[in-house]
Amino acid sequence: MHTSSHLVPPTSVRVPSAVWSASSRSVSSKNAGLGTCVSFYPDGNKLVSGSIYGTLNIQDQKTGAVEVFNGHTDIVQEVDVSRNGRMVVSGSNDKTVRIWDGASGERIHVFEGHEHWVLSVGFSPDSSRVVSGSRDRTIWVHYNLELDQWRTAMELEGAQRLDSHTTLSPNGTHLVTSNWHSTTASVYDVLTGERVAAFEHNGNVNGIAYSPSGKFIATACDDRTVYLWEAPIIEDLQNQVSSILVTFTHR
């Protein structure tokens, strides 16, 4: 049983166009290849990017040094860094999810089993779980038992076609997913695999994010609107109604 998303009259806020001025620097490597995705390390001093050649490139923003992690055999679609900066996870068109030592580049674990491209990956806030979404219409939750002994403990069936975005709640109990070709964002209970909420939109959902408190979910839609929703609460799922609180409309 999943709760329906209930719309309450939202407050509409215009987001003015803004021009940002910031200094930038470019760090490149002959081995880096064309970039496909990027994520910062928590300290902000390094970032990891994926490439069309299956490499991960760790770039030090202070020194300009670049380290290349090799292992994937096809395009890297997404990367993420654990909150403690010790691990990096990557998903690729080679159908694998790989976990790396964030400092040495040593491969810690490889998950095989997705039957199509892995389009999204992400760590839970405590770094004990990794989620992966694939074009095979499945979402997997992988657990770190101890001493980097990882295993896949749950497969969420019925995912929409081409799940491109997967985000765990800050406490790791819920997972919200969406994709570029659907007007629905879905929330799953990580422990049971049950879909507990579905957020309907007037256009395709292009982005999702949890608030740091875990109380709200933001979705970006191609109707030029950002929606803010009440997130399902695990203690009261039977009576939970998820409502739109506010929308932000781009000019």
Task: Describe this entry's structure for a reader.
- Keywords: WD repeat.
- WD repeats lie at residues 69-110, 111-141, 198-230.
- Pfam families: WD40 (PF00400).
- The structure is a single chain.
- The N and C termini lie far apart (38 Å).
- The protein is built from no helices and 22 strands.
- The chain has 2 domains: 31-155, Methylamine Dehydrogenase, Chain H (7 Propeller), CATH 2.130.10; 171-250, Thrombin, subunit H, CATH 2.40.10.
- Strand 17 (184-189) and strand 18 (195-200) form a beta hairpin.
- The protein has strands spanning 3-6, 11-15, 35-40, 46-51, 56-60, 66-69, 76-81, 87-92, 96-101, 107-112, 118-123, 129-134, 139-144, 150-156, 163-168, 174-179, 184-189, 195-200, 205-210, 216-221, 225-230, 242-250.
- It has 251 residues and is an all-beta fold.
Helical segment count: 0
Q: At the third CATH level, what is the topology name of the largest domain?
A: Methylamine Dehydrogenase, Chain H
Low-confidence region ranges: 1-31, 236-242
Q: What letter string, H or E per element, gives the SSE order?
A: EEEEEEEEEEEEEEEEEEEEEE
Structural class comes to mainly beta
- Write down the Rg: 19 Å
- Total strand count, please? 22
Reading off the top of the CATH hierarchy, the class of the largest domain is best stated as Mainly Beta
Q: What portion of the residues fall into strands of 2 or more residues?
A: over 45%
Just name the CATH architecture of the largest domain: 7 Propeller
Helix content: under 10%
Give the termini distance in whole angstroms. Answer: 38 Å
Keywords: WD repeat
InterPro entries: WD40/YVTN_repeat-like_dom_sf, WD40_repeat_dom_sf, WD40_rpt
Pfam families: WD40 (PF00400)
Protein name: WD40 repeat-like protein
